[in-house]
Amino acid sequence: MDCPHCDAEPLVALEYERVEVDYCAKCRGVWLDAGELELLYGDANAARDFLESRNPVPRGEKPRRCPECGARMVKEATEGDRPVTVDRCTKGHGLWLDRGELATVLQQAEHESHGSEVGRFLREVFPGTNKTGASE
Ligand SMILES: [Zn+2]
Ligand SMILES: [Zn+2]
After folding, report:
1. Element (H, E) at 113
2. Which residues are within 5 Å of ligand 2 (an ion), measured at CB?
3. How far is CA 72 from the centre of its chain?
4. DSSP single-letter state for residue 73
5. Taking the domains of the chain in order of start, what are their residue ranges?
6. Strand 74-78 and strand 12-16: pairing?
7. Which ligand has its closest atom nearest to the C-alpha of 9?
8. Which ligand does the CA of 26 lie closest to?
């Protein structure tokens, strides 16, 4: 699979326990296959709430294509204190998160459902950009 953000940059698989996350070493974006978000949340209901609590996204971001099927993905913003914009394949292959967005999603997961082991692991691997230097 190639990175939907960079041209022809292959995604690198990172495996932890049962979860395999593909990421781009160049832009640090992350591809989550369908179902992986539930494992990251450690709670299927919380993950479903997250996936269903989306808002329309302001225009501006470049459309991306699903690394699996090549179809154009839709952009959706999550709710919460710090909304993130995710790209989702309408055929259900998965979600694309830009650099730093995974950390925000995982923080929210920990807040809502105490997260999971793999979520904590990924937060170490993909720390947020945290420009404000907030005390986290
Ligand atoms: Zn990339
Ligand atoms: Zn797809």
Report:
1. helix 101-113
2. 66, 68-69, 89, 91, 93
3. 17
4. P
5. 12-54+65-125
6. unpaired
7. 1
8. 1
Find the 136 Cα to ligand 1 centroid distance in Å. Answer: 27
Given pLDDT bands bounded at 50, 70 and 90, which one contains residue 59?
A: low
Instruction: Write the single-letter amino acid at 121.
Output: F
pTM greater than 0.85 (yes/no): no
pLDDT of 136 above 70: no
Q: Could you say which ligand is closest to the alpha carbon of residue 74?
A: 2
Q: Exposed, middle or buried, 112 (CB in 10 Å: 0-12/13-18/19+)?
A: middle
Ligand nearest 5 Cα, by number? 1
The neighbour count for residue 9, using CB atoms within 10 Å, is 15
- DSSP element (H, E) containing 15: strand 12-16
What mean pLDDT is predicted for residues 51-76? Answer: 81
Say what percent of the chain tops pLDDT 70.
88
Region of 29 please: left (phi>0), alpha (psi -120 to 50) or beta. Answer: beta
